[in-house]
Specification:
By secondary structure, this protein is mainly alpha-helical. About 70% of the residues lie in helices and about 5% in strands. A two-stranded antiparallel sheet has the order 1-2. The structure holds magnesium ion.
């Protein structure tokens, strides 16, 4: 399976995780609360890997310890899988939700003269 971001679609990923869970009998555990809790657990696993590390440390560690990059990658994938499951069980179109929220964010945090207007206000 040679799937990359550049050649995959959200719908294909949703179908894949749906089939994966049905094949294992896990599809009966799709209650939004349970999936959100599982998503939170996976986010905590990611957080634990980064806890108390500064960005420079993480970059150096990733280079020195390829296993860390692998573990970070796997936790991000776990989180993404649960986002796909949750969006499916709540009937949320992820692409539409993403762009709608980004549009809202761009209104909330407008860029004026090459910088975030709100950030500029905070700094003044
Ligand atoms: Mg995990």
């Amino acid at each position: 399976m040679d799937k990359r971001d550049t050649n995959s679609k959200i719908a294909e990923l949703r179908d894949f995780i749906k089939d994966f869970r049905i094949a294992r009998g896990w599809d009966k555990y799709n209650d939004p609360y349970d999936v959100a809790a599982a998503l939170s657990c996976e986010a905590s696993e990611l957080l634990e890997l980064l806890l108390w590390k500064k960005n420079e440390d993480v970059q150096a560690l990733i280079t020195a310890e390829p296993k860390l990059k692998q573990r970070l990658t796997e936790e991000v994938a776990d989180i993404f899988a649960y986002i796909l499951v949750l969006s499916d069980s709540l009937n949320i179109d992820l692409t539409d939700a993403f762009f709608s929220k980004m549009r809202k964010n761009s209104e909330k945090y407008p860029v004026i003269n090459g910088t975030c207007a709100r950030r500029k206000r905070w700094l003044e």
